[in-house]
Design brief:
homodimer; three-stranded antiparallel sheet; DNA-binding; 6 helices
DNA sequence: TGGATAGTTCAATAACTCATGAGTAGTTGA
DNA sequence: TCAACTACTCATGAGTTATTGAACTATCCA
């Protein structure tokens, strides 16, 4: 992941709908979810709007799509998200020990306080 | 770091100038750098433009400022960057093991390949 | 072939972001 | 107090992004 890709990725993530999309698709794993089901899961947003945001995420290489019969299945590109994390840590934060501290606490372990929080804003 | 804060942070990072600013300020550490010096370091960008981007980063709580005599010193808020990383890993990526793999390799260790790269896009 | 289903694309408009340059505010030292 | 210095704020205009609804494409099945 180079700087340009990272900029595109940050830009793609800087929208509530798209952040929701990513979070939903990460939960779905490699199987992914059809566009229609995504629309239902996210509370019936207008189809064209959803399509626009999905296209934006795909252009940023954060998700990928495949057609299965009448459906278009979207799934997250884990290597892209990993690459973005890596970019943020290495190139952007310079692997600063203070910043990195949050990564050493095995992120995701429920109840582990991270930077003054107690993991209350979990989905 | 909640979703709204993360959105603001992503939005703030989604601009080349501001990404450069963050990278510069991370390198400076807690001492920070005066606005004028930042302008010089980044190749004489117009002062008002710089001020605008610094204000955007500060509004996103990614940096902080303090006045020292005639200068305004900007420095990075490490806990905010850490919080953003944490949010991206936990809330956004759901601590997916595949995505997390990039964090286990002690990011920043030069020469350690991360997701098919060899760390060539370093500043 | 024609209707139904699943999604995307397009055009118009609204809303937001960014760059620029002029003007303004805080600080210092003579 | 005044000039110089440092930096911010504001107004403007250009460019970009987002929303909406209608039209379109692809697929399936009877």
């Amino acid at each position: 992941m180079d700087r340009e890709q990272a900029l595109t990725a940050f830009s793609a993530l800087a929208h509530a709908d798209r952040l929701d999309l990513i979070r939903l698709l990460v939960r779905q794993g490699p199987e992914g979810l059809a566009a229609g089901q995504i629309g239902v899961a996210l509370g019936g947003r207008m189809a064209s709007r959803l399509s626009f945001h999905l296209a934006t995420l795909e252009a940023a290489a954060l998700i990928t799509s495949r057609r299965v019969a009448r459906n278009v299945i979207y799934s997250v590109r884990t290597e892209a998200l990993g690459g973005l994390l890596s970019f943020l840590m290495r190139d952007c934060c310079g692997s600063d020990p203070q910043i990195m501290a949050c990564c050493d606490r095995h992120p995701g372990a429920e109840g582990v306080p991270v930077y003054g929080e107690a993991g209350t804003d979990k989905t």
